[in-house]
Records
---
Amino acid sequence: MADEKDREEIIVAEFHKKIKEAFEVFDHESNNTVDVREIGTIIRSLGCCPTEGELHDLIAEVEEEEPTGYIRFEKFLPVMTEILLERRYRPIPEDVLLRAFEVLDSAKRGFLTKDELIKYMTEEDGVSLCHLGWSAVARSQLTATSTSQVQVILLPQPPERTG
């Protein structure tokens, strides 16, 4: 039991060190704050891939009650530690991405042309794949019923656009 607790403390200490190092890169004033616009970059540098909606929620969680445009390290550290411990916002596994591109590569050339990529990113049945985001691909089931037919079942709905 003590070994498990010691191991967890070591893991937490390692996470704290990584989080602090990532945070300090953007703490230009050395005052334990970063511009709120840098939080996404910091989180992604720690190996997490939240959607824009999830990132917005995280920022709301670590912002001051009266937003100042800056995030304090003291508020960011416990939230980010919990995220890393829970392994939230993991990147899409390489094999899933590869399968997705293989499905899109109906000619089996091993690559997509610029025009094909533009088409897939901007006009898939009236819904842009960019709008859906890669997280939707991660939570979807891709199955090729033939080389020319692809079935994509998106489980969550994309966030509503505002503005």
Note: Confidence is low (pLDDT under 50) at residues 134-161.
---
Amino acid sequence: MKLDEVRIKDFNFGDVDGSDESLEPKFQDLFYDEDSFYETELSKKKKFIIYGRKGTGKTLLASYINEKMKHNASQSSKIVSYDEYIYEKLKEFKYDSVKKEEQSLFWRYVFLQQFVDLIEKDYDCAYFWQFYRKRKLKKFIESVTRQFLEVQQFVNEESTEIKNNGKINSTLSDLGVELQVNSSTGNTQKTTSIESPYFKKYKEIETEVLNYLKSSRKVYFIFFDDMDRLEETMNLDEFINLMISMIYGAQSLNRKIEGNSKIVLLLRSDILKLLFGKSGDVNKPITSGGIELIWYESNAAASDSPLIKMVLYKMSKSIDDNLPLSEIRRNFFPTKDTIFKYMMSRSFGRPRDIVSFFNIYKKKFPEDQKIVLKNMQRVEKEYSEWFYKEISNELKITGKFDEVDKLLKSISELGKYEFTYHKLFDFMQKRQGNTDELLELLTLLVQLGVLGIRLNTGNIEFRYRDYNIDKPVNIHTKFVVHYGLRKLLSISFNDDNEKNITYE
């Protein structure tokens, strides 16, 4: 196809859902990892956590590595999703009664199950003439499968009669350390603790799996994705403890595995931030074992940022594998960087935001030969509505969604892109709004990047990375509404020309 025949509808900008994008036929060709940086980082033994804000491409990166490993005979990989995990959990355990101190062991057990599941596929794929290998695999699989069944039978057993008519209460609170044995004689009841058969069995299974991984020439990667959705099934404190134990469990098992096989966790930055205040040491494995997905470079020209390069790369691969990014830039965008600055200022510096913006444009103006600012502005309202829905997903986990939603309506009614605490407070008081938590809620919106801060230098600073030092927020702070929300909130742009914006 000649360049002058190309229309915007011919480009594949990707999908806002990484799971859906990974199913596309040319997914691997369209995936962008500049200089294979993230792939190289993940190959390091100690790296086992991929984290970033929602929409930064965690699932996409895992899917890309997963597909590459599938095509390498010396590697094997799988992605365990939230739904699959829930199935395993319900099949094996009554998790609501797991003791806090035993949750790490529970996770290691689940991880071992997934390694065995992956190794089973090696048996299915082995050639019929590989007699020794198939015999070794069959022996290993039969052994650990039998032990897993014994564990399942033990956990499902609610009570067992013993000789003195006592009962063994084997709920999952007995998961890692002990059984409560209640025996009664007349009116006397005695409770004693013994080592749980489950704990003994776990050690046997772990030894077998570790020995197999040590002797195998293969490298096994298992990605755990969407575990943050467990928050929907339990209260916040239980969820936080569960996530902390998952990190410790993965780190503990990975350290025992010889070679490069490992468990890899995909986690949202806002979830990790919740954990920091609950465990003094959880920041250590995150800092040493984490890979943060970053797409924004504050010192780079907008068109040179990794985010825009990603889009240009996808456009190039959509129509011609050999077309330089500079040609895409020259042929399908205005000469100036204005359109890129415009889009970046309405995003959180995430691939999902930019991909959504381009896809909305493509839907509205499929026959355009160039992406132009005038038409981008016409689709901004629809993008702004989508952008708020994305923010809503992050707000829900704060437990303050309803309060924040009401506050944003008050900001919309105020109609100012920039305001102070006192100005908003007075406005809400006149309308009999609830101002009890106003400063706390404004601080939360700054932390999420919904509001920016006007600095004394005149610059506007928005936070979109979760691990920068928080700027102090007080009653004298000048707040600025994020550009991506102004259309939705019907706030004027006229007196703000978008200069002096900086992003942390």
Note: Confidence is low (pLDDT under 50) at residues 158-195, 465-469, 500-504.
---
Amino acid sequence: MRRNGFRDLLGKIEQQKRRKEQTAQAQIAKLKAEVRARDSEIYDLQNATVIMDTERIWFLERQVEELKDELSRNSVKEGVTQYYSWAKSPSDASKDDLMDTARDEDHFGHSTMLQLQASTPARARSSFMTPPATSPRLPASLCSRAASPTPSSRDTPLHYPDSDKQLLEEEIASLHFEVHRLTATLDSYHALGARIGDALSNGPLEKNRAFSTLEAVENQVHLLLQTMSERAAAASHLTSAISELGFPGEDASEMVSSLAAGFRAVRIELEYLTPGEVSLPPTSRGAQVLDLLLMRLRELAKKSKEDDESINEYHEIEQSLRKQLDSRVSVMDELNEKIAGVYRMLDEKDNRVRELEVGNGRLKSAIDGYVQDITELEKLVACMEKEHRESTNTHTSRQKSSENLIAAKDTIIAELEAKIEETVVQTAELLKEMSATEVSLTRQSAAMSRQHRTALALRDARVSELRADIDRVKNSLQVAQETIHALRIENSGMKSQMEEEREKVRHAMDSMKEELQRVLRLSQSFLGDTNSDPNSEYGGNEPDRSGGCLKNLRRRGSRGLRRRYDSGPELLNEDDVDI
């Protein structure tokens, strides 16, 4: 049972590490896709804010209103009858569901499940990678839905909305949902970390804290800590008991047999854990088996530590990408607010211009009426003067009355002229006001354009700094890879050079041995010649002595001048040969 439990524990640890790596990679890919989508949206907004055409703005507003109306109508239709896409299998649909919170207690503990729920979405557990939120091929919504026909209208054809507009709306909704979900997950993770830290430090808990849905998780963490402490105490007690009492058994033979059986079982388990040939024989001692077991366990611990470090690096990359995404979202919100303010100011200015145009039209119509009245009065005055001239010749009695009438008409004309002058002054003032308003409008538009340029420049500088940081990290990684590659090449070169040096030394030693053997043979031949002819030096004739010396010299000279093939570091000279 213990062996099976140990094997299951190792399998669970490996599966857990693999799943952590897969979820981290999936989250990194998703965050990179969201960052690229945010960059494209910021670029589009930057290009759109430069153009300030009222007709274009009105056209876009009408399109937005139409799309909203159509979306509301479609949402009402879909709210009545909906069905999921039957092209997906039930297992895939259950995997893609965002509300999948089932936990596998056979493979993960409480703390591990808590980390997975706080750091990674539930969708990352699917067997295949989901597309990013800005994918043009498949909308990244909660699930692919379409309006299903009711049972009463099963044979009627379906009318789908425009695919491009629906795709854009679904992408925007999915982006907002992902951002809200990430922020909620981070807040819950920070709150849970604070509560667990307070519990571990045995600090005073808050008396009046709100009810939280994570109390069950906290209780499980407390129980886990308590069980760990109890197990540690039990393990220490067990080690002391084994050291004092020894191995189980009534006598020494049973203890030795039980110990040997245990070591054989450990050796078999090692073969199961590490496939391949084990260097220890079946009759090896217990200490050797324990050493081998400890070595394998150390290797597994080292490997698990490296995996944990890589997972931590992935989490750091994920945090940095989330920070970049938050900064870009804040910049987009600020730009949207500024654009809305600009639109409101443009609407107010357009309304003011319309009011001024209406007033100007009214003023022009009043001036035209005054001019017509003046022309009519001039005609009337001319007629009256003609009648006066005729009446002066014929009717002298009516002269005074006509003079009074002319005086009254003169007063009326003076009043009309004063009114005309006042209207002219008013028109001049209105023209001045119109010119002043036009100048103020141009100045305000220039100031707004300058503000937008400065804001865009600051945002571009921030984006360039972030990209420069990313490039520096990539360059450092590339330099590290190049140095590792260079060190590997240098190591292989050093190995080949050492082999060559060993070959050279071996050849030199062989050549020196051959030279020494040749010198020994020469010395032995020389000593043999001297011993074979003892009378050549002490007795005999002079011609024989000189002839023997010449023969020995000739033999020695021929041996000394004989060509030698040597592959050593240097050749022996003639003095060494004579010796």
Note: The longest strand covers residues 83-84.
---
Amino acid sequence: MKTFAVLIAGIILIGCAASTSQVFNPCWEKEQISQYVNGCIHTQDYHGFVQDFGEPDTIERDSDKFVAVWIKNNGESKYMLRFIFDEETLRSNTWSYVKL
């Protein structure tokens, strides 16, 4: 059973990597970030985004969801990545990019 779980996790990670074919780079522009996130959002959960972006700068909790916010710097300006995650599944269907 453990082998099966590892196999499934590997398939999910490979699917995300294949859809983006890149590793997240905080210096990307908005369009590149959008392509990356939209390629992974349906296959990754909260922990996958923590691996990509590091620990979030803030987390706000609600009854059945939480909002994780990452502040990044692309060398020229700062921006915020904000994701709303389901508390039970740890998956997100909603995210936003805001230039600060």
Note: The chain is about 40% helix and 30% strand.
